[in-house]
Design goal:
Two copies of one chain form a homodimer. With 206 residues, chain A is α/β, with parallel strands linked by helices. The first copy, chain A, is built from eight helices and six strands. In chain A, strands 4-3-5-6 form a four-stranded parallel beta sheet. In chain A, strands 1-2 form a two-stranded antiparallel sheet. In chain A, helix 2 crosses helix 3. The longest helix of chain A is centred in the first third of the chain and has 17 residues, at 42-58. Chain A starts with 9 loop residues before the first helix and ends in an 8-residue tail after the last helix. Chains A, B: May play a role in DNA repair. It seems to be involved in an RecBC-independent recombinational process of DNA repair. It may act with RecF and RecO.
Chain lengths: 206, 206
């Protein structure tokens, strides 16, 4: 995009290049962000600069659940109010947050920080499955709940983990598939309806 | 979004909050960016941190054209190969880049770094119109080309500037409105066609 006849000042070019490394940010967005910060929010820019430095410097992975934490073991893993017999496997801390917001789970978590994606070179080794196995086979965990996304890659990851963990004698479950709460059947996609039919429950179970 | 039962570590929360100050970035994007940087691109994060600090520290506005530069006066304004009798007014440095890429202009620029937007509290004073007037009335500039966007706010800005500059005895022109190069009439919107009809040219002028 840059034209040799109109060299942008180097610090501006460097900032635009650095912003482009953010996921989902192309050259136009990066440019708009750079102009905005320089023209209207220099304090926001310095704030972001500091936040980046601190986050990279201070955060590490929890030794037990692999999520981000400032300490060796995160607060969730240390909480005495959690059921250590249940371990829920999610792809990202955002997924963990959503499950917490449902108030339906009181066990512990393991955060993969990704999903199996062979085409992108992300295999069991890159995701540190040995670490997960060590965690799940601590003798206290009895049930592992697979809560990876219901995308192709998330499902592949769940299948792979299910086999791996079942072979270790653990009870393995998966989040239920079905019609989303509050939705009208007319607007639910066919694949979801097919799943909901296959996994239908007897009414008296409720 | 944050749940008191699952406090995210402070440096992560601070990073997400700082990323949300970028234009067009909501809480989900900010979260995704933060996870990505921390998990996969710590060097990119530090790189961005440095770039932000340098850009805010080293860049200022060119005393002549108001664009970003490391020096008092930018390279474009100092270039002896530019025609100082023409001054093109644009909203942002990105617009200036696009005009340069057209290779159709060889005069100088003035970058407003914004547009008149009364509803957002951006008036002639906020945009520094006095500075622009001083620049345009240097005795060398003979024609001012208004190249603000063809949006409502860009048009308002152009109208306002046209009156202001004409009253100073300057020749003022506006980029031509019409059918975009390479387009089929069937797919051109009605407003553009109406403009193209109104501003039609005699064929022998070509």
């Amino acid at each position: 995009m840059s034209d040799p006849s109109l060299p942008e000042p180097q610090p501006l070019q460097a900032l635009i290049d650095a912003l482009r490394r953010l996921p989902g940010v192309g050259v136009r967005s990066a440019r708009r962000m750079a102009y905005h910060l320089l023209q209207h929010d220099a304090s926001g820019a310095l704030h972001l600069s500091e936040a980046l430095r601190h986050a990279v410097g201070d955060l590490k992975h929890c030794r037990r659940c692999n999520s981000f934490t400032e300490d060796e073991v995160c607060g969730t893993c240390l909480s005495p109010r959690r059921d250590p017999a249940q371990l829920c496997i999610v792809e990202t801390p955002a997924d963990q947050n959503m499950l917490e917001a449902s108030h339906g789970y009181h066990g512990l978590y393991y955060v993969l920080m990704g999903r199996l994606a062979p085409l992108d070179g992300v295999g069991p080794q890159e995701l540190g499955f040995q670490n997960l196995l060590d965690r799940a086979c601590d003798g206290v965990v009895q049930e592992v709940i697979l809560a990876t996304n219901f995308t192709a890659e998330g499902e592949t990851t769940a299948h792979y983990l299910a086999e791996l963990l079942r072979s270790r004698g653990l009870r393995v479950s998966r989040l239920a598939r079905g019609v989303p709460a509050g939705s009208e059947l007319e607007y639910v996609d066919a694949g979801t309806l097919a799943w909901a039919l296959m996994e239908r429950r007897d009414s008296h179970q409720d």
